[in-house]
């Protein structure tokens, strides 16, 4: 079930009691949830640009997102990837701001971030920034859509970056699978085109012609009438309107018209079709897709969402439940997988076991039985009303996303819904149309199915060179069709009514709230903290429970047993917790360096019920051999796939394994998992549960009785708390020396990660390097990616662990070996140190970082998570940010330069260079070779943190 996780719906009752229509002065009204304190205004500029303004006076951050209703669909056949290439080029200078790196540098210097993406029908550009810098940022941003330069000197450089992006994903299984799918659809359909682009498809050897195509594409499609802009700032709506109208009103309206796609995505008589795909990673999945009409006009009925909710349900009697009971599947999702003007795709994706691949025809038969069951019995008013009720609650108490996500969501929604519905449109579902549902279900038949099976060892006899992927077509015989059509329910059942739906939305008022949790009197020896938070006015809370136990995580073998124990608990609970999730509850169960961590979120009324169920199974799971074997194989497979990920991802994932003393390496974890047998687990659980020290935080719309009630449930379900201190966390303390640690990734690109640790533990060095990372990030990117064209993936940033400061530099390159990357990063650092930083630049970046540390949480989840992280790290006054700010305030330019120079000075550098040689194994970087995690950690001292 995908829909309610990402968007939801709302019923008529919500329109009357739970939503408010907010009118922003002279602009159009926007319907908002009752908990949203912001002011909104919709307007359309004279040039046709659709604009949503959001005034949030208390905001620390501001930002904007501009969506252009054009994407790879519009790529010329002989310049595939052009829309994506244009997205890259747009950042590299405008007539008013000609320097290519200035925009990035300005955003970074003011504590922000920026990016863009190109999809089939949309290209979206966005940024966030410190609230006080919004106006000058908008001035630069607007010029992208008014007068970009498309400098000829950057055409070859940036087409190389696009090609590098393509090369970096050559071993990415989703990209390879998409290439196969595109090869099978109607070649006249625009979705069949290669959307990323590379040197060949962009005809990079003809620079002048490529630039001409770029300019022509921009002038044809980048038109104000198919653009939508969202701006969030702390200024008034009138001031925001003045900022926007005076700048974005200059965008040309070219009168661009976009017509629905009439070409069918699958050619006549080409279905059903079965495609086998050979993956790189050890994965097994089945995807069944159906072409259906565009459902956009039915946004108040949402037929594909309704069907996806039922087909993707994971409760008792569901398709997934039946597949799991037979040992055939590990997971399932269903819903709309693709939509564009005129058409859509509905898909079901099933993660199979090895046995499931062997029985895949029976898996398909069960899928069609489930579809038939929904068609016959599932189109019911009460089911529709339940989905509407859940969505009504979601919109009524809507939690704001992070600012960047919120900006992108709103600019995209402006292209899809009436202006008044830009916030509510995804949630609205107040028109029950059973005939429409049956119409869509009638299209989900065997004769209309496009099926792809991805697994090692399948019969494949065809090849796509662009992604080096092998695939094959399997005939779908008439006999096989008849077998799939002979529906027999096999124990499948539609979902029962949801028993976790909340009904009590009363709010708890905080008394003398200083914004921080307070410790309550001991309850059965438990360390219990409470924070009643009424700032966000939602009937929700977060509850965190740390079950600290050294025996749970002491060594790779004990960690493996704990991981498998928790996996079995989550798998056993899945049917129940999925139903709770639909009702607005969430939970996580995982191990950390101290033991086991449980978190619950959502409506406070129903959290106790969920916690009781979780802890009951945690204490005494069903020791099922088949479940154990399936989950053990899954855990091993996930780790074995590690060295098939992109090199830069592997390098970054390796850092905590090198720097945290207790963190085992991948191979050690795999070996430990293989050694575990089911009989080990029950004795392990008994030992761990008897060793628990409790640390609990309850945060949100809760009072003291709620906190004590949850604590009583925990102690009663598990065991009395043991006394004693918690284990220390040990971080490797590097000494002045250059070390190198090679990794073997299955990729031709070379990759390098240079981690440099502060010479001293403490907040002064941590903030000094934090400031250095902020100052360097945009320039490092510009110099090594844009100017030197070393690769698409280039990044510099900070990497603190507790109070140990650090910097990290990452490059993945298709053109330079690892030794060369080491020289380039080293050369950059030497030049940066030699150039120095001016007093003005230092002051600007310092102010920006102080503002970032002072940012208020964006929602209840963010606020509670901050408190929990502080508690885990020993800040029982919940003042980690204040302490960092105080250290930063005390930092002057001379002190900062001294700390940074001591960190980066080559002879004193405390670092480790993690790398992959790619196609150049002979080009080894310099430094002392580290042969294993154990050797590395055993020879170095540690920092200890409680």
TrEMBL record:
Q: Which residues form the signal peptide?
A: 1-20
* Uppermost EC category: hydrolase
Q: Which UniProt keywords apply?
A: Hydrolase, Metal-binding, Metalloprotease, Protease, Signal, Zinc
Coenzyme PQQ synthesis protein F-like C-terminal lobe domain span: 771-868
Q: What does this protein do?
A: Endopeptidase that degrades small peptides of less than 7 kDa, such as glucagon and insulin.
What lineage is this protein's organism placed in?
Bacteria, Pseudomonadati, Pseudomonadota, Gammaproteobacteria, Cellvibrionales
Q: What is this protein called?
A: Protease 3
Q: Which residues form the Peptidase M16 N-terminal domain?
A: 50-170
Q: Where is the Peptidase M16 C-terminal domain?
A: 211-387
Q: Name one Pfam family in it.
A: PqqF-like_C_4
Family, according to the entry, reads as follows: Belongs to the peptidase M16 family.
Domain (Peptidase M16 middle/third) spans 395-671
> What EC number is given for this enzyme?
3.4.24.55
Its required cofactor(s), as named, are: Zn(2+)
């Amino acid at each position: 079930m995908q829909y309610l996780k990402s968007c939801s719906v709302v019923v008529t009752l919500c329109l009357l009691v739970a939503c408010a229509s907010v009118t922003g002065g002279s602009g159009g009204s926007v319907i908002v949830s009752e908990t949203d304190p912001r002011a909104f205004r919709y307007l359309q500029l004279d040039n046709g640009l659709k604009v949503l303004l959001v005034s949030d006076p208390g905001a620390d951050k501001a930002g904007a997102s501009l969506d252009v209703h054009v994407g790879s669909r519009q790529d010329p056949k002989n310049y595939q990837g052009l829309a994506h290439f244009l997205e890259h080029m747009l950042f590299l200078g405008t007539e008013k701001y000609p320097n290519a790196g200035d925009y990035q540098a300005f955003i970074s210097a003011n504590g922000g971030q920026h990016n863009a993406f190109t999809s089939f029908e949309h290209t979206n550009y966005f940024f966030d920034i410190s609230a006080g810098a919004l106006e000058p940022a908008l001035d630069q941003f607007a010029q992208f859509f008014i007068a970009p330069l498309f400098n000829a000197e950057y055409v070859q450089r940036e087409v190389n970056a696009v090609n590098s992006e393509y090369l970096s994903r050559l071993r990415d299984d989703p990209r390879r699978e998409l290439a196969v799918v595109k090869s099978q659809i109607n070649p006249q359909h625009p979705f069949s085109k290669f959307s990323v682009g590379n040197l060949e498809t962009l005809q990079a050897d003809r620079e002048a012609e490529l630039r001409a195509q770029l300019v022509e594409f921009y002038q044809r499609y980048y038109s104000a009438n198919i653009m939508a802009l969202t701006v969030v700032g702390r200024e008034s709506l009138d001031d925001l309107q003045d900022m926007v109208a005076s700048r974005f009103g200059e965008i040309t309206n070219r009168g661009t018209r976009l017509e629905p796609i009439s070409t069918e995505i699958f050619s006549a008589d080409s279905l059903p079709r079965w495609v086998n795909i050979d993956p790189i990673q050890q994965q097994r999945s089945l995807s069944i897709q159906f072409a259906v009409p565009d459902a956009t006009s039915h946004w108040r009925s949402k037929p594909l969402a309704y069907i996806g909710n039922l087909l993707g349900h994971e409760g008792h009697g569901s398709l997934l439940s039946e597949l799991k009971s037979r040992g055939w599947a590990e997971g399932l999702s269903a819903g709309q997988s693709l939509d564009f003007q005129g058409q859509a795709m509905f898909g079901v994706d099933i993660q199979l076991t090895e046995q499931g691949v062997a029985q895949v025809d029976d898996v398909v038969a069960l899928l069609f039985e489930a579809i038939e069951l929904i068609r016959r019995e599932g189109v019911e008013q009460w089911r529709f009303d339940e989905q509407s009720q859940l969505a009504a609650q979601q919109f009524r108490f809507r939690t704001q996303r992070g600012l960047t996500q919120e900006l992108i969501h709103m600019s995209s929604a402006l292209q899809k819904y009436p202006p008044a519905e830009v916030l509510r449109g995804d949630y609205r579902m107040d028109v029950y149309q059973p005939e429409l549902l049956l119409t869509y279900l009638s299209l989900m038949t065997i004769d209309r199915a496009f099926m792809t099976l991805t697994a090692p060892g399948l019969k494949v006899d065809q090849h796509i060179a662009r992604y080096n992927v092998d695939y094959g077509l399997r005939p779908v015989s008439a006999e096989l069709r008849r077998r799939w059509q002979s529906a027999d329910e096999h124990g499948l059942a539609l979902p029962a009514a949801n028993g976790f739906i909340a009904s009590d939305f009363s709010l708890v008022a905080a008394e003398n709230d200083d914004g921080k949790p307070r410790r309550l009197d001991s309850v059965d020896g438990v360390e219990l903290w409470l924070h009643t938070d009424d700032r966000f006015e939602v009937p929700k809370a977060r509850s965190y429970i740390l079950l600290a136990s050294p025996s749970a995580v002491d060594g790779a073998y004990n960690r493996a047993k704990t991981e498998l124990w928790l996996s079995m608990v989550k798998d056993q609970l899945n049917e129940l917790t999925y139903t709770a999730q639909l009702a607005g509850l969430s939970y996580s169960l995982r191990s950390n360096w101290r033991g086991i961590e449980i978190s619950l979120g959502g409506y406070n009324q129903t959290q106790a019920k969920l916690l009781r169920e979780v802890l009951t199974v945690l204490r005494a799971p069903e020791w099922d051999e088949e479940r154990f074997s399936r989950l053990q194989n899954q855990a091993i497979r996930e780790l074995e796939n590690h060295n098939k990920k992109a090199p830069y991802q592997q390098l970054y994932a390796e850092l905590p394994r090198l720097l945290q003393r207790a963190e085992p390496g991948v191979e050690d974890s795999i070996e430990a998992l293989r050694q575990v047998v089911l009989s080990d687990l029950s004795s392990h659980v008994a030992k761990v549960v008897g060793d628990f020290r409790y640390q609990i935080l309850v945060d949100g719309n809760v009072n003291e009785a709620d906190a004590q009630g949850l604590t009583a449930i925990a102690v009663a379900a598990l065991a009395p708390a043991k006394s004693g201190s918690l284990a220390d966390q040990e971080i490797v303390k590097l000494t002045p020396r250059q070390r190198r640690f090679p990794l073997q990734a299955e990729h031709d690109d070379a990759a390098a990660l240079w981690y440099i640790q502060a010479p001293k533990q403490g907040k002064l060095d941590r903030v000094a390097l934090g400031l250095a990372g902020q100052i360097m990030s945009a320039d490092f990117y510009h110099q090594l990616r844009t100017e030197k064209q070393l690769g698409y993936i280039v990044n510099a940033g900070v990497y603190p662990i507790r109070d140990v400061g650090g910097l990290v530099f990452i490059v993945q390159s298709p053109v330079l070996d690892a030794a060369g990357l080491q020289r380039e990063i080293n050369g950059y650092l030497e030049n940066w140190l030699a150039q120095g930083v001016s007093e003005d630049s230092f002051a600007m970046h310092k102010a920006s970082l102080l503002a970032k540390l002072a940012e208020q949480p964006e929602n209840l989840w963010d606020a509670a998570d901050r408190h929990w992280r502080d508690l885990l790290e020993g800040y029982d006054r919940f003042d980690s940010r204040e302490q960092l700010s105080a250290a930063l305030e005390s930092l002057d330019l001379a002190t900062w330069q001294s700390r940074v120079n001591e960190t980066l000075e080559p002879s004193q550098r405390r670092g480790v260079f993690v790398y992959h040689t790619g196609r150049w194994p002979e080009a080894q970087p310099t430094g002392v070779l580290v042969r294993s995690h154990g050797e590395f950690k055993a020879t170095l001292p540690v920092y200890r943190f409680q």
